[in-house]
């Protein structure tokens, strides 16, 4: 705990803790504590924080001792410099002895499954036979199930206290759904837990980003941010039970349900709304998504059944196979270009030429900066056909037909200097933010694997 020089003025002490979910700058006491921690971080110069995408969230909690002396606690999200415990910061919430009993063996098993998956994926891309696709799907299922089981076991070792003196594990707090990955590892839960366990009264909280910005560009070093809803939206309300806390801001509007355009015993065609993920997070299989909303009606559906895993920010058509034979048949059609999945977008600026084919192998697309996403030595084959549809107002409307299927493929092929060289409008990661990411899956055309009928679906973009 770090103490202030002298007691704070009466006007600086808030009557109750501000909501951790409220946007805007912190109060004077929390800001003073945050600036003191930032000075320390400047002096110590953690090299890992300065690497591309290496920054992280830090937090401070102003607290009062039982005798009235005021100071602050410091915390970081996740690990710092590869360590969970760092001098001058509060410890993590999990039991390190319990973790060590199972985590190393679990990580080794996941690594072995990952290597097996990479080999099968390479073989299936070279020759997508039914046997290879089935083997790939099985390893994907095994890896996902083992990862979820390992995280569920880990979640039992996170013990979360609240202001009433009660405690629960992270697993219980999120039950019956598995907790999202990293739940309990954010700065705010660590700070409140340490305060409760040492009988300190929380007065003011602030969380800020420090170091290199994340690769999506949505954080700035030194800027303050509210607590995340995905991980802390369940944990913090429980922890603050028994405390006087300002009301939390209203939640965002509810996203509409996906529309089912075609349904039969073998497949579904769905129109996904913008803002809704196609599948849930890896460690949160019950998190809101197209898949989760459809499962009450189609309980056997899984993430492996989705052939177009559209990002949350992308709207439009996707097809879901309801059995392995249908999935393998549809994958063959797309691999041989006998089926078509067409997207449409607006891109910033003028595009040279009228049509073309972009072949830029991709690697590490989830977090890497734009230049590092393309790797001609180690990257996986990624091909996109494109055609200009319209020009005007400093933008170009482009149709895309992805020949291969990789995360962020269209966005990278649009933005990269060796692709179109101009990002999609609203792409905050590779370009600049706008009202939305103007990328939409507008058409699907394929032969039904069982009936032989040609199915043709079109949903025009709203932009």
Rg measurement, Å: 25 Å
Unreliable runs: none
- Specify the biggest β-sheet: 9 strands, mixed
Order of helices and strands: EHHEEHHEEHHEHEEHEHEEHEEHEE
Number of helices: 11
Spatial gap, N to C terminus: 53 Å
Shape label:
globular
- Share of β-strand residues: 15-25%
Relative helix content: 25-40%
Strand element count: 15
User: Please, what is the average pLDDT?
Assistant: 88
Description:
- This protein has about 475 residues and is of the alpha+beta class.
- The chain contains eleven helices and 15 strands.
- The strands form three sheets. Strands 7, 8, 9, 10, 11, 12, 13, 14 and 15 form a nine-stranded mixed β-sheet that branches. Strands 1-3-2-6 form a four-stranded antiparallel β-sheet, with helices on both faces.
- A hairpin with a 3-residue loop joins strand 7 and strand 8 (about 265-270).
- Helix 3 (about 95-125) runs antiparallel to helix 4.
- The chain is globular.
- The mean pLDDT is about 90.
Which features characterize this protein?
single chain; 4-stranded antiparallel sheet; alpha+beta; 463 residues; globular; 11 helices
